Prior knowledge:
By secondary structure, the chain is mostly helical. It has nine helices and four strands; from the N terminus they run E-E-H-H-H-H-E-H-E-H-H-H-H. Helices cover 70% and strands 7% of the residues. The longest helix is centred in the C-terminal third of the chain and has 38 residues.
Amino acid sequence: MELSPKVTFLGLTFDLTVIIGSLLTAVIVLIITILATRGRQMRPGKLQNVVEMVIDFSRGIARMSFDDRTAEKYLGFTFTLFLFILIANQLGVIMMVSADAHHAVPALGITEGLLQKTHEVSWLKSPTADLNVTISMAVAIALFANYMGLRTSVKGYFKHFLSPLGILHVIEEFSKPATHAMRLWANIFAGEVLIVIMLTKGPIYLTGIPMLAWMGFSVFVGAIQAYIFTVLANVYIAQKMTSDH
């Protein structure tokens, strides 16, 4: 497998590949939204049409979990989350970037020992192919969901924890973000690993067509996983906001 350049700061290790991918995804989302909202017209252009379709799609996702009024409040969250994950999932399929390293670079965590295993250094891949990213998003959503549950009704929030099945609800609080994160990570990571294997472990005239087919399938899987992650995020928040959850 490829190496990932890492830097250490204040005792913490940061993966530059993940940081670059996440920042690039955020910039792409920002550019798309700015271009789509500038100069809006009654007869929308192609980009405005596409963004409006994604907004309507996101509104439908929100309405699956909330009533119409609440869904509009969470439309921005739903749209941003879906678009961010959708683009992040495709980076490793469309723009995977790597380079050869022939000398150790200790400042980036690239040592002679690691170079004996591989000289490939990854500089860009799907951020969601890193478990730390998906766990961070899932935990942030879980914390926000619990905050909204407490804000909506303190009594209703603690009600199910004090029931005879309270221990199961406590376990559920940890299992939800874990499965939420791992479902997205496993699908994107597995897809990228297979693409790298077909690129590096066989002649291109044998792996070319299967690789193109798999890349097309990976784009489809990335879109489906963005949809599933966003739907579950809304479901978890809505569950906490109901007094009888």
